[in-house]
Every structure is written in structure tokens, then in C-alpha cells.
Amino acid sequence: xxxxKKVLHPKNxxxxxxxxxxxxxxxxxxxxxxxxxxxxxxKDWNEQNNKVKTSHIKHAQLNRLIRKKYDQIEDLIFEFxxxxxxxxxxxxxxxxKNENKNKTFFELANEYLVNLEKTGKFKRAKxxxxxxxxxxxxxxxNHLAFQEIDILFLKKLKVYLISYQGVSERTVMNIFVLVRxxxxxxxxxxxxxxxxxxxxxxxxxxxxxxxxxxxxxxxxIKAIEDLDLEKGTTTHHTRNVFLFSFYLAGIRISDVLExxxxxxxxxxxxxxxxxxxxxDSLKLPIKVMKILEYYENDKTSNNDYIFPELKRANPxxxxxxxxxxxxxxSKFNKHLKKIAQLAKIDKKITTHIARHSFGNIAxxxxxxxxxxxxxxxxxxxxxxxxxxxxxxxxxxxxxDSVLKx
Length: 405
What we know:
alpha+beta; 3-stranded antiparallel sheet; single chain
């Protein structure tokens, strides 16, 4: 529910109270003021009729200004409500002031990247920075107005990315997701109107192509377990970290490295998932307990990290933790390649394959609800979609039934 009122808004300035001409907009009990740039005395304001009295020398001019801005606000609210679009009081006053009208796509994008880094989302910031560079190379300028980003612009961008940069359809969709995110922010900040929005039904739609997720089979995990690796070597340590992740339903490597000894209590491990901040608690399988025993001698306190990669990281510096985690992942992936060769596994193994391997071996042995809990997914549909990459039995049986002749 929205309401508009012409008001005198008091403000204390240098010990004196001044009264500013303003229009107050209220939406869902939240208020925003549009100040008209004029101060008048209280005696010159008609509170009953909400207008400047004839006692003021510029009463006619000021009342015209008030009426003009009031009508603009009223028209905007009508436009939003007619289209059943949600809006805020701040959004309405910002549109009328048009205070952000000159902010470009890349200026807003830079603010967005800074905010990602401030909130510790360095991996996302790094990926989005690379995507923005692709857009800038296509546009051949760092000055791009949101009004220029229309359906034709996006279609040309897609052709350029695939034809000249050789990127995949998935990468194109990730770039479109970033553009859409920034466009939605721009609409909220009144930089551009909703009418210009180039995404949605009948416009540009974001559809990710299906991908093939390949996980290890149980015998391949067993081959890795049975390797005779020299203790204390980086390869031996890499195997421990990989299996630790796999044994705990494919916990992401960044979460594995950030686990501390105080996360373990009464045969369980409790941790906060970095991707969505969810807290989870899992029973420690015997195989995990054996890995923990190997690292227990290096424990300096209960607040110490289980694995060594972050022991020298500054716990108060998320960027330092991100950098050291990134370095560790590169190291692990290099040694996982060596482990694959030693175990005679003809598949590319990375730290993330531990998660895919758990999904592959779980197959349809575990209910989707339980897998959702183990994977820490927010929605069951995510789990079902993810697990669909690894369950092929029904399709295989159907194929065999046709070919039995």
C-alpha cells in the first residue's frame, strides 16, 4: 500500500530549525522523502491544504513545483501497481530525483565486485571480474549504459563469445546471469526502468545446458585407498584430504581445510558450510577417524586447523584464507593426477570429484531426502537433479529389455 503527502520536513542546522519542502512517500510502512530544494518558514505553510501560503513571495512557483513532483510520483506508483510490480518508497523517490541516471554498467559492476570482496566472496568476485572483462572486450569500451543492453546487444554478445572467444554455452549463460544480476540492482537503484529489462519470457532466457558429471566407482576409490604411498609426502597427504572429503559425503575442499579440532566432539564433526553458511553435523566413520589419528600429533590446540594448509593463514583476513585455499587446491589437483596414474584410473581426478564420486556410488541406495541432508542442499529438487547425473540403472534395464531378441 503506497501513500503520498506534501509536507514541511523539519531539520536542525547549526542550532536552528529549518523547514524543507518535501513530498513524503510511504510504501509498506517504510518512508522516503523527496526534497524539493527550498526551505520556507513555518508561518508560510498551509498545513490544512498542504501548500505554500500567498504570504510567501514565491508561493505560485513553489506550489507549481510541488504539484509537478507530486504528479510524477503518483504516475510512477500507478505504473508500478498497474503492472503488479513490487517497489519501495526509496525506489520511487530515486526515480524522480534520477540521482543515478549517469551511472554506467561497469561503474555499478565495480561497486558490486567491491561488495563481494568486502563480504569475503573472493571466488565469486574473481569469476565475475573475468566475465566482465569478456563484456568489455566485446563492447570495446568501459562506458556502457544500461539502456544499451537490450535483446540485440545480448544476442550479439553471445555470438562474439562463442565465435571469437571460443567459450562454451555454459560460460555464456554465466555471463548472462551476471548481467541480469547487475540489471536487477540497477532497477532497484533507479538507474534504469523495468521496461528496459531484456530478460524473461519473450526476451532473452537463461538456460544452462546439461553437463555430464563423472564420479569414481567404488573399486576405483578402493584402488586409491590401497596405494602404498610414503607417509609424510605431499601425495600421501593429498590422498588423505581427498578421502576425508569423500568419506563425509563429498564436503567441499574449502570447508575441509577450514575444519578445526574443536569441530570434533563425541564422535561427530560439526561445521559451517562456506557456500550457504548452513551448519551440519555428521557422524565420523571409522575411516575418517584413522585419517584424523595421523594428524593429531601436529595439533597445537583445539582451535588449530586439522590440516596444515591454513595454519599460517591470518584467521581475521578472509582474502588470505581464500588465497591459501586456492594454492592448496592447485597443489592437490596436481598430485591427484599422479594418484590417478598410480591407481590406474583413466579419469581426471580433482578435489571436486570426491563429491561426484560419493553421488555416483550412492546411486539410488539412499533416499533423496537423506542425500539432501548429506549434500547440504537447500532444495530437494537440487538433490534430485544432481543425483540424476549418476543414476542410470532404469534406463540401462529398459534398453536391455528392448534388445533381448
